[in-house]
TrEMBL record:
This is Neutral zinc metallopeptidase. The chain crosses the membrane at residues 21-43. It holds the Pfam family Zn_peptidase. Keywords: Membrane, Transmembrane, Transmembrane helix. Residues 1-10 have a biased composition (Polar residues). Residues 1-20 are annotated as: Disordered. Its main location: membrane. It is found in: Membrane. It is a single-pass membrane protein. It comes from the Bacteria.
Length: 286
């Protein structure tokens, strides 16, 4: 995808992970990332749940150092970091336009992107997490947390190393930010507290599918920047992290929290059609 170079005045980026901050792109071969990806994407562990579990079993993780907030330095520290900063700027610009079109421009707020690699990160409201927690969004500090080493694992899971698969992950987490600032997330969380476990899981599936759909909205509104093969890369990534694919059929559909491969691909495709109102219908509880 041919995104414009980032302007550090237009994005909020920091790095607070251990292990030397944001490293260069490369293979990792770390089994914990596989387990964490399954735990996060398949079982819908929210940051609070993931964090407490990971902290109790991985006391050997490196502690995060002081957060670096020099956007230029962070964004140019690696290939993945530069790509993420370009993606964040595009997402900010696209969603700001969407809010303006809907007469909600004053409600739009940019999220912060925290990039770290092979370390431990501390959030402002969702506790702390190691690299094993995978990408997540913390609503308390409106920050997207991405360990860039996850992208290497994603490439193996999705069967490709295309940049659009990585943009899809970022855009999905950005979708959770949209849910937060519009109030959708709060409504769903409230409904989950009154629901049975199976019903709560289904509500979580709707949340995740809507975030996938929002990722498609971003891509659909930037079709002039899409290159041949990008859409296929996104679909492969969405299918690779479906609950049914990751659990190999060992978990019942009642325990799904992110949706099947088919559902995730369909939600992404729905957003690509450019109708964000259709995405909003996903979380409507009737």
């Amino acid at each position: 995808m041919r995104l414009n170079p980032f302007n550090s005045d237009n994005i909020k980026v920091r790095s607070s992970g251990g292990g030397g901050g944001v490293g260069k792109a490369g293979g990792i071969g770390c089994g914990t990332i596989v387990l964490a990806a399954i735990g996060y994407f398949a079982f819908g562990l929210d940051p609070m749940q993931t964090i407490s579990t990971v902290e109790s079993v991985q006391q050997t993780g490196q502690q995060s150092g002081p957060a670096s907030t020099n956007e230029q330095e962070i964004c140019n520290s690696s290939e993945y970091a530069l790509e993420a900063c370009n993606g964040l700027q595009s997402l900010n610009q696209t969603w700001a336009r969407v809010f303006q079109e809907q007469g909600l421009g004053d409600r739009f707020q940019q999220p912060t992107l925290d990039l770290f690699r092979n370390g431990r990160v501390t959030t402002d409201g969702c506790g702390s997490a190691t690299s094993a927690s995978g990408p997540f969004y913390c609503p308390a500090d409106q920050t997207i947390y991405i360990d860039t080493s996850f992208y290497d694992q994603l490439a193996r899971m999705a069967g490709n190393r295309g940049d659009f698969a990585r943009y899809y992950v970022l855009a999905h987490e950005y979708g959770h930010h949209i849910q937060t600032i519009t109030g959708i997330s709060g409504q769903i969380r409230s409904a989950q507290q009154r629901a049975s476990r199976a019903q709560a899981n289904q509500l979580q599936v709707r949340m995740e599918l809507q975030a996938d759909c929002y990722a498609g909205v971003w891509a659909g509104r930037n079709r002039n920047l899409i290159e041949p093969g990008d859409i296929e890369e996104g679909m492969q990534a969405a299918a690779a992290i479906g609950d049914d694919r990751l659990t190999g059929g060992r978990v019942s559909s009642e325990n799904f929290t992110h949706g099947t491969s088919a559902q995730r691909s369909q939600a992404l495709r729905l957003g690509l059609q450019g109708n964000d109102a259709a995405c909003d219908e996903i979380t409507v509880v009737r």
